[in-house]
Amino acid sequence: MVKDVKHIMERKAFEKGLESIINKGQEKDLTEVMLPMINMLEKILGDAWEGSSYELLRKLAKDPNSKWTHYTQNILRNVDPHILKTFALNAGYESGFRGYKTSLKMSERYQCNIPWIILMDPTTACNMHCTGCWAAEYGDKMNLSFEDMDRIITEGKELGIHAFLFTGGEPLIKKKE
After folding, report:
1. CA–CA separation, 133 vs 13, rounded Å?
2. pTM confidence score
3. In this structure, are 128 and 149 located in the same domain?
4. Alpha-carbon distance values, 124 to 50, 106, 138 (Å)
5. If DSSP codes are grouped into helix, strand and coil, which group holds residue 9?
6. Beta bridge partners of 120
7. Whether 56 contacts 123, CB under 8 Å
8. Residues of the domain holding 66
9. Residues 133 and 47 reside in one and the same domain
10. How many domains does the chain have?
């Protein structure tokens, strides 16, 4: 229970920080928004990242003509704030921060590398018939059940993995599941 409360409180603090960044990013210069965020990120992650990574981010944030500055500014000003916040909470907090820390612990515990993403083919079935696609070679009979996909995702999350890419065949053939 204590772990759940800590998770909830951490996530809420991250969410409030994101809301502030998104709101400021609507009007202010990106440097004013990004540098405090990078400093906060360094305090939270500490030496989990190389010092040179933080310095690279600072360098990019200070360059108003960088393609990354323009790209980030475009995202902050043109993507719906709710969608942006939800994506950043899941990709940034759950996967990048919390999931990364969990995967480091699990890597040490199990003496193996933990991937940051799992690619799953829910089905080999496909109604597209694209030239050169491998799916046609396997037919349409190999399918993961909903229960198998749920188990894979549940076990992945326990290992700190929060990114799952559904490939195929055509995954939407199984959209009812």
Report:
1. 45
2. 0.68
3. yes
4. 41, 31, 7
5. helix
6. 166
7. no
8. 1-111
9. no
10. 2
Percent of the chain with pLDDT over 70: 94
* Strand extents, DSSP E, 12-137: 118-120
Q: The tokens of 46 are what? A: 């500490």
pLDDT at 18: 85
Task: For residue 121, give the nearest of 67, 165, 175 by alpha carbon.
Answer: 165
Three-state SS for 131?
A: coil
Secondary structure E strands in 10-143: 118-120
Question: In which band, very low, low, confident or very high, does the pLDDT at 127 lie, cut at 50, 70 and 90?
Answer: confident
Q: Are 76 and 30 in contact (CB under 8 A)?
A: yes
Sole residue written with tokens 């229960």: 147
Res. 54: pLDDT tops 80? yes
Picking from 163, 43, 2, 20, the residue whose alpha carbon sits closest to that of residue 92 is 163
- Considering the domain architecture, whether residues 58 and 82 belong to the same structural domain is answered as yes
For the chain, report the end-to-end CA distance as a whole number of angstroms. Answer: 32
Nearest to 168 by CA among 128, 122, 136, 132: 122
Task: Give the Cβ contact number of residue 159 at 10 Å.
Answer: 19
Which residue is it, tokens 């600072």? 58
Phi-psi region of 117 (alpha: psi -120 to 50; beta: other; left: phi over 0): beta
- The answer to whether residues 147 and 102 touch, using CB atoms and an 8 Å cutoff, is no
